[in-house]
Amino acid sequence: GDSVTQMEGPVTLSEEAFLTINCTYTATGYPSLFWYVQYPGEGLQLLLKATKADDKGSNKGFEATYRKETTSFHLEKGSVQVSDSAVYFCALKPGSARQLTFGSGTQLTVLP
Amino acid sequence: DTGVSQDPRHKITKRGQNVTFRCDPISEHNRLYWYRQTLGQGPEFLTYFQNEAQLEKSRLLSDRFSAERPKGSFSTLEIQRTEQGDSAMYLCASSFTTNEQFFGPGTRLTVL
Fold first, then answer.
1. Chain B partners of A100 at a C-beta cutoff of 8 Å?
2. Of A33, A63, A90, B18, which shows the fewest CB atoms inside 10 Å?
């Protein structure tokens, strides 16, 4: 079945460091791919998405590129801030499905 | 746009009791989803409504769980004869298209 594998956390970085959170997936067909972020005490917020191969999703300085050949959708940010501390979830939705399939999440802590 | 709201935000109950959660989706959204999130894991799909019709149910949704969406507006999720294993965050999401889901803040259930 469909699945998402995320880099295990927690990840701790200093402010202004470069961030990469790895995400790979297994799915039939050509799924849409998403990154969601969950701040403490809040619900999930869509961070960015990509719907086809080689698409790049971007938002708030975060980027991820849909790589069909490596079945990956790694999240990157050039310079993290303390306010980026949160849990990040990679997710997919195959074209025929209604629901999202999520990875287990990666906790990011950014220290000043 | 007030976002997806859920009520209550927290519920503590004793094993064997029934509980009911409510979700109010974004007003123009005709699709509504329920997910369950346990500690340290990503959300797992429970069920999906399009308007008032419940079109899909996960195998996670045992016969103790029932969901409704009368008149295609708000939705309720009821758990009968709660068990300690039901302790989790219950998330509701809504969408207008199938690609972008907007999540509520969740209801945290603790079964003692």
1. 35, 43, 45, 101
2. B18
